[in-house]
Design brief:
Radius of gyration: 25 Å
Number of strands: 14
Strand order of the largest sheet: 6-7-8-3-9-10
Structural class: alpha/beta
CATH class of the largest domain: Alpha Beta
CATH superfamily of the largest domain: P-loop containing nucleotide triphosphate hydrolases
Order of helices and strands: EEEHEEHEHHHHHEHEHEEHHHEEHEEHH
Number of helices: 15
CATH architecture of the largest domain: 3-Layer(aba) Sandwich
Strand content: 25-35%
């Protein structure tokens, strides 16, 4: 029988003023019904370009399909070359016959629509059912993806959910039209280990129930071992090896595959240097040698006994229900009476599963979220007592690196301008 999806001799280029970048170079792979195929490789290897090509989601220009075909056969009889379909014809495919779960749910979900309305929208678009039927089907899918309080989640906005809950909403949206092929673009990368495992189990469970084919994109070989039937290893836009997961792990053939397996921390003996991919690839060793800045080890900085920052009985409560006159009747206690000290020269780790309050606490320390009660002290300054304009001078001393670079970087300005902007704001040049 014809495979569910066949990618044959596909090449994709990106055209820019500086020249042409060959993102994919004559790749070929098949996905069968009921099979999970993992695309494995480091960042920039072509995994996401491959998946976006299937749904024609690459912007053209600058993207150009220079060769190949992508054949989709939903029933095993009729073959459709997706690259020959126009935008209107692809509307019936996207989200209906082929669905996709993206890496970062916060940038994938619409912030001005409730989670329930967004899933309903997909059902109403493709299934042509009454609104009440679509609502009921949405609630059923929220139950299937094991969201707590489906009716409550239905009326909440994405920013009111934890990362794991948002990803479950994305899975419900992708699965609600029962697609023949599901593409998962690193759907667990932004999640903690506990939530990651449950999401993987959920995807595998739904796949087995529906019999759909799955393309699972990841750089994590542990995820491949847990969820995939076959693995396709990509490197610099090419497929260097593809085989069953068992054979990939037990008998890797290509040096890059061997490198990926050898560089897993799970195999590493404490006290010895962890191998890196460049140890196994001659071309990478040469490239790395050109870019080494220093071989000197940084000086050890001892932890001081002087407190740099402290939180005292810090609480952040969000109202979830209001009375007729706007008075809050119930709250979600995102952070509840937390106290800790951070000493100079110390690294303090905040550990916990998705939704436990780590991110809320971090944002509150910078007053990006206002605390409900409690006190934040930095270098003897009471941050909770300061007005917004008084915090300006402290912003350059207390910084945050956000989880998702896609939603943190302004797409309208260059990387150089983005880096220079805070230095200009604080008068550093």
């Amino acid at each position: 029988m014809q495979p569910l999806l066949s990618i044959n001799d596909l090449s994709v280029d990106f055209i820019a003023e500086s020249g042409i970048t060959n993102a994919l170079k004559n790749i070929s792979l098949n996905v069968n019904r009921g099979e999970v195929v993992a695309l494995v490789g480091e960042s920039g290897s072509g995994k996401s370009v491959t998946s976006l090509s299937v749904l024609q989601l690459l912007p053209s220009p600058p993207a150009r399909y220079s060769s190949g075909e992508i054949i989709f056969s939903e029933d095993g009889k009729q073959n459709i070359n997706l690259l020959h379909r126009n935008s209107y014809e692809m509307q019936d495919v996207r989200g209906n016959k082929i669905a996709m779960i993206f890496q970062e749910p916060m940038t994938s979900l619409n912030p001005v629509l409730t989670c329930g309305d967004q899933v309903m929208e997909a059902i109403l678009l493709h299934k042509k059912v009454p609104k009440e039927t679509a609502r009921q089907k949405t609630l059923e899918w929220f139950e299937k993806v094991k969201l707590p309080d489906p009716a409550g989640i239905f009326n909440r906005y994405p920013h009111q959910l934890s990362g794991g809950q948002k990803q479950r909403v994305m899975i419900a949206m992708a699965m609600c039209c029962e697609p023949a092929l599901l593409i998962c673009d690193e759907p667990t990368t932004a999640l903690d280990v506990t939530v990651q495992k449950t999401i993987l189990q959920l995807i595998k469970e739904l796949q087995q129930q529906s019999g759909m084919g799955v393309i699972f994109i990841t750089h994590d070989l542990g995820v491949v071992a847990e969820i995939a039937d076959r693995a396709v290893v990509m490197y610099k836009g090419e497929i260097v090896e593809q085989n069953t997961v068992k054979n990939i792990f037990n008998s890797p053939q290509h040096p890059y595959t061997k490198a990926l397996l050898a560089c897993r921390p799970v195999n590493h003996e404490r006290g010895k240097r962890l191998p890196v991919v460049s140890d196994f690839m001659e071309e990478l060793r040469t490239e790395m040698a050109k870019n080494i800045i220093s071989t000197e080890r940084p000086l050890y900085t001892p932890v001081s006994t002087e407190i740099l920052m402290s939180a005292e009985n810090l609480s952040v409560w969000f109202p979830v229900k209001r009375s007729l006159f706007g008075k809050s009747q119930s709250y979600t206690k995102a952070v509840d009476s937390v106290s800790f000290d951070v000493f100079k020269g110390e690294t303090l780790g905040l550990v916990g599963e998705s939704g436990c309050g780590k991110t809320t606490l971090g944002r509150t320390l910078l007053r990006l979220i206002e605390p409900t009660t409690g006190k934040i002290t930095y270098n003897g300054n009471n941050l909770t007592a300061k007005k917004r304009d008084e915090l300006h001078s402290l912003r350059k001393e207390i910084q945050i690196i956000f989880q998702d670079p896609y939603s943190s970087l302004n797409p309208r300005i260059t990387i150089g301008s983005a880096i220079a902007e805070p230095m200009k704001v604080h008068g550093l040049f």
